[in-house]
Amino acid sequence: MDTDRIEREILIDAPPERVWAELIEFFWVNARGGALTVVPGARLVTRDEHDHEYPIVIERADPHSVLSYRWASAYPGREPGAGNSTLVEFTLTEEAGRTRLQVIESGFATLPEQDGRQAFQDNTGGWDWVLDRLTTATTAA
Prior knowledge:
The protein is of the alpha+beta class.
């Protein structure tokens, strides 16, 4: 089993434009500090359900098709960087008016062993929850 990478893929009954809008809204609804700018190099801080803060740095943003960011999910409050962060990549592909949404989170093997194992375990279940919520929000819009 590959414990460096989590991959999930779903088909959502909505066009990429709507999925993109919900994706941005969903991930940054708890962001703090000014207007949301989704461009490479942009930094923001988001919070989880336990009010832990996670700085996020946008790596790539191609509206309606690709969004990637780096975060230190194993280390709340720490800036993402070499040795403490993973890369999250969303790819949106249109299929007959619907959207295939793929998410890949990679880089767990670059974390210290215990932290990498725990983050992999936590985030594996987390992505299932996130995609379920995102699908529900998108199809209800």
